[in-house]
Amino acid sequence: MIPLGFFSVCLRATQLDKTVDFYKALGFLPVGEDAPGLRVSLTYRSQSLTFMSFLQNNLINFRGAHIHRLKECMKQIGMPITLFEEFKSEERLMLDDEGNPLPDNECGNFSIEDPDGHEFFFNTHREEREPFESAVLDSSPTISGMPFDDRNMPNVIYALHVSDLVASQRFYESLGLVVKREADVAWIYPPNDVGNTRYLFQLRQGSGNRVAITLSQADLNPDTLRSLGLEPINKAGVEWVGHDPDGRAIEFASFTT
Predict the structure, then answer these.
(1) pLDDT in tens, 211-231
(2) Are 2 and 73 in contact (CB under 8 A)?
(3) CA angle in degrees (0–180, nearest 5) for 59-64-66
(4) What sign does the dihedral 236-241-244-246 (CA atoms) show?
(5) Which region among 1-10, 11-20, 97-106, 141-150 has the lowest average model confidence (pLDDT)?
(6) The whole model's pTM is what?
(7) Distances (CA, A) of 171 to 113, 114, 118, 203, 205
(8) Are 92 and 67 in contact (CB under 8 A)?
């Protein structure tokens, strides 16, 4: 499988302003890529989340990869493709390594779903191609065989609930991703040879098409957390739990980075 693209998390926000205010109260800051009423990106230390009022579902977005070639790879492994759209006339005609024309210059978008219905959206525009290709060529080393460990674990961990970890493991490995199982959770990350396009997300044994967001290194007043509907808890390193305005689980963890 060719590299999937730059990783980002896009979340459905039925009440965009209310959702943005909620995450700002948790310590998130605007990134400056807003589209009023439609899209707001917020950052929490080194990670960001994008909230969109027009999404039907939460999704993981990969941007910048060779769309047509990636789509063909998906088809070869039997992956159902949905919502395929070509971006025509975006760029001058390009050739592959053998000198053959590439269709529509590798720009466009498509979606796939994992066994539990979690959506993955792949899209590439002209201005995203060169930065992604440069990043893939930058072979940054990983730490202890993983892109993250206890010393540099992300401050925002996005978790997908899955009904069958074994089936999910097969799915993600078929995409060329690495799966590291730990009891009833699994960590998903790219192999070492994709340069500095590093990312990490989590699978949790559970039911339903649900997601959870875990935050760390928070320095918030307990009264603020209570005012946002979070409650104290002491379980597996999690100190506070609650839900955002769209019902997504929010956790504050005690681990540090």
Answers:
(1) 999 998 667 788 999 999 999
(2) yes
(3) 110
(4) positive
(5) 141-150
(6) 0.86
(7) 10, 7, 12, 12, 15
(8) no
